[in-house]
Amino acid sequence: MKKRARFYLLLVIGLFLVFVFVDSLGTFDSRPYYEVPHGSHTHYVPKDCDPQLTPGDAPTREPGPGEMITCDGQIVPAQAP
After folding, report:
1. Among candidates 71, 77, 80, which has minimal Cα distance to 33?
2. Rounded to the nearest 10 degrees, how much is the dihedral formed by the CA atoms of 68, 64, 23, 30?
3. Per-residue pLDDT at 80
4. DSSP-derived 3-state class of residue 80
5. DSSP code string of 29-77
6. For the range 8-12, what are the long-range contacts, defined as Cβ-Cβ under 8 Å and sequence gap of 24 or more?
7. How many other CB atoms are found less than 10 A from the CB of residue 44?
8. Which has the least CB within 10 A, 6, 14, 34, 40?
9. Nearest-CA neighbor of 48 among 63, 33, 66, 29?
10. What is the pLDDT confidence band of residue 60, given thresholds at 50, 70 and 90?
11. Which residues does residue 33 pair with via DSSP β-bridges, in sequence order?
């Protein structure tokens, strides 16, 4: 009985660690940008840009509701689909 309980405990801990790892990769993040901490401030870098915008060229202000970050680092009103 102790071996079975230990097995289930290790299984739960393992699943939790897998979930934490996958979440740290940003899998569950639906925002169109990611945050890059840089000393005393944070850069907001857009996803899906080709070529990718460097964090130094990205804005340091988080886009508000109805705004988006362009691939050249500008915060502009979001376009309605």
Report:
1. 71
2. -50
3. 59
4. coil
5. ---SEEEEEETTEEEEEESS-SSPPPGGGS-SS---TTEEE-TTS-EEE
6. none
7. 21
8. 40
9. 33
10. very high
11. 46
d(CA 8, CA 58): 46
Q: Which residue type does 19 have?
A: F
Length of the chain: 81
Cα separation of 34 and 62, whole Å? 10
**Which residue in this structure is represented by tokens 């169109």?**
32
Compute CA distances 59 → 44, 65, 81, whole Å.
6, 16, 24
Q: What is the pLDDT of residues 12-31, one digit of tens each?
A: 999 999 999 999 888 888 88
Q: Is the pTM of this model over 0.85?
A: no
Distance of alpha carbon 7 from alpha carbon 36, whole angstroms: 39
Amino acid at 55: P
